[in-house]
């Protein structure tokens, strides 16, 4: 005969079944976090290596090292892949680290994979202009003049506005000529930016020339200027 401890017990079976049910219902299902990850931003997604490089460069300059020396000797920057190096450059520009951004951009231009992008120049010239580094803005524009870029009207419009806001009249006109040289068609925004920007700087003759060029290219754009001025008054 079976002992009482091994005998069938309905109560024991019910208890075991309930325990299994509780265990099953409390099981946690882990979701793949990768599905919730935000999409990368063009040129600005920061990998761990890129973050470390940004921090390393900033620490070096805070300790007194010149930006050029910090960039040239930083081992973390040297090990970065293309996307990470571009991300470091754009992050430094976004943080207002103008000298570091310029030096990293110099290094990018030496890389075998380098292919110029106008929005990189817009980032660079914007931060240099905001920091009042006029000679460095001229240097960046001299780089730009030696490039061959794809047509990009919106990019040039941003660049022209940046230069006008920083009162770089001649560089603005140089970049406008580059725009046309590289088969980038000026649009209404281009001419409005130039006419109003030049007028605000007191460059009335240049502004008048841009109005005439706008009229030649767009005809009705001249009326648009008049309508806008009437609305503002």
- In DSSP terms (H or I, runs of 4 or more residues), the helix count works out at 13
Helix content: 55-70%
Order of helices and strands: HHHHHHHHHHHHH
Largest sheet: none
CATH superfamily of the largest domain: Tetratricopeptide repeat domain
CATH topology of the largest domain: Serine Threonine Protein Phosphatase 5, Tetratricopeptide repeat
Give me the secondary-structure category.
mainly alpha
So what's the overall shape? Answer: elongated
Nearest-angstrom radius of gyration? 30 Å
CATH architecture of the largest domain: Alpha Horseshoe
Average pLDDT level: 80
CATH class of the largest domain: Mainly Alpha
- The stretches of 5 or more residues where confidence is low (pLDDT under 50) are 1-8, 16-20, 23-43
Say how many strands there are. Answer: 0
């Amino acid at each position: 005969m079976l002992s009482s401890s091994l005998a069938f017990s309905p109560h024991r079976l019910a208890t075991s079944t309930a325990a299994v049910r509780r265990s099953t219902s409390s099981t946690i299902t882990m979701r793949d976090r990768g599905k919730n990850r935000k999409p990368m931003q063009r040129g600005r997604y920061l990998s761990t290596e890129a973050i470390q490089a940004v921090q390393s460069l900033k620490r070096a300059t805070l300790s007194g090292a010149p930006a050029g020396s910090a960039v040239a000797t930083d081992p973390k920057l040297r090990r970065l892949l293309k996307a990470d190096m571009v991300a470091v450059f754009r992050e430094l520009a976004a943080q207002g680290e103008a000298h570091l951004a310029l030096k990293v951009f110099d290094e990018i231009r030496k890389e075998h994979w380098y292919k110029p992008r106008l929005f990189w120049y817009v980032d660079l010239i914007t931060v240099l202009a905001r920091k009042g580094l006029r000679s460095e803005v001229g240097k960046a524009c001299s780089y730009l003049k030696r490039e061959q870029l794809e047509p990009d009207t919106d990019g040039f419009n941003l660049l022209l506005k940046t230069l006008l806001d920083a009162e770089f009249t001649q560089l603005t006109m140089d970049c406008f000529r580059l725009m046309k040289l590289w088969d980038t068609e000026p649009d209404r925004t281009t001419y409005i930016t130039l006419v109003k920007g030049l007028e605000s700087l007191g460059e009335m003759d240049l502004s008048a020339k841009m109005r005439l060029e706008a009229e030649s290219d767009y005809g009705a754009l001249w009326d648009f200027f008049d309508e806008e001025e009437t609305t503002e008054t």
